[in-house]
Amino acid sequence: MSSTANRRYSASAAVQFARIDEYVDPIVEAIATHDMTIEKRGAVHHIRSPFGKATFEARQGGFKLTVEAADPGGINRLKHALVGPICFIAAREKLDIRWEGDHTAPTLPEDLRLLHVRSIEDITSRFRRITFKGENLERYDRDDQLHCRLIFQPRGIATPHWPMLDHLGHVVWPRNSAVPTRVYTIRRIDTGRQEITIDFALHAHAGPATQWAMDARAGDLVGILGPAANGPKPAKFHVLAGDETALPGIARILESLSRDATGHAFVEVDGKADELPLECPSGVTVHWLHRNGATAGTTTLLPDAVRSVLWPKNRGEAFFWGGCEHKAFSAIYRHLRKEIELSKERFVLYSHWHRSLSEEQIIATGAEAYLPQ
Ligand SMILES: Cc1cc2nc3c(=O)[nH]c(=O)nc-3n(C[C@H](O)[C@H](O)[C@H](O)COP(=O)(O)OP(=O)(O)OC[C@H]3O[C@@H](n4cnc5c(N)ncnc54)[C@H](O)[C@@H]3O)c2cc1C
């Protein structure tokens, strides 16, 4: 092998940050959801990803990061996989992370794929299913990583804008001109047909993603990044809970459960007309929770329903998966941890949206808008 083939790219950053102890656990959890495996040895978290390897070490008065990858794109991607979650979770600290070592010019994320709208179907009056056609989509075909980030391009744009990752691990946009991006769940992927299906909940305060879905036409272009975020783990007893934004994930998980699985799925929607047929094992009961005209994100339907569950004595046999508005998310999270005493390995629960914040505002606010209160 030539010496160029053996070339490795590496860099490190040492950051002064007095309050690091308050953030270590959520930072490590946030890094882990982005398709990274983390093992703690001594004080050092060793991180592996498809793009290379990294470390995160909290020290007195700060933390140290290292990254190592086989190519320039990989090193920028790894820096981003660390800097993104750290700067998001600790947004209020306004951290300035400076790297030493190999520097490479901004690169397109390796996981970026281009998708074109193939078909649009209104599966209810408030749910729009869009099937996209792409190429080279195999990396998105994962049962343990269900989510993705979509990048919405204006129709007919001559030169689409794609985010680049720079040597600081930050996202930079061509000509400083960003287009909107949002997180969605891959409802279905068919690598044979090279298709990805996303179900968009058409909510009442349409931001750019919902507006895009409402206006979509065959041929429209989006980018996709990911996959990310954990899916379900094997269990005898499953509890799934969420509003419309989690329904695509719940539907996908129910279809994948073993035939002898037992448990409950709780889905909050406005009313009967919003219910969808769900394919699931006979031992799992689906409960539709109706808001009956109440504003989304204002009810306690989901936390109340989760509180009604009779859990197996051996909590290790159970698994919870869910997503919803931040307030209900916080209540469910506290219940699972404090009252049910589910270990963190036995549940996956995300705050999918915030009633008074758009996604850009959530990112700018950081932990307070995203972690359980
Ligand atoms: C891991 C994950 C997976 C997700 N999967 C899906 C999915 O498969 N399908 C899906 O439809 N959504 C999904 N979401 C939720 C989706 O990303 C948000 O709802 C997103 O804010 C929609 O973007 P927007 O541009 O329409 O609104 P934003 O510009 O982000 O927000 C504008 C306004 O709308 C409000 N708002 C945002 N979402 C909702 C909502 N659902 N109901 C009522 N008001 C809302 C906000 O509070 C804000 O006031 C997921 C989110 C996460 C984090």
Automatic annotation (TrEMBL):
SUPFAM superfamilies recorded: Riboflavin synthase domain-like
Every FAD-binding FR-type domain range: 110-234
Listed InterPro entries: FAD-bd_FR_type, FNR_nucleotide-bd, Riboflavin_synthase-like_b-brl, SIP_FAD-bd, SIP_fam, SIP_rossman_dom, UCP028291
Span of the signal peptide: none
One Pfam family of this chain: DUF2218
Family the UniProt entry places it in: Belongs to the SIP oxidoreductase family.
Protein name: DUF2218 domain-containing protein
Organism of origin: Rhizobium lusitanum
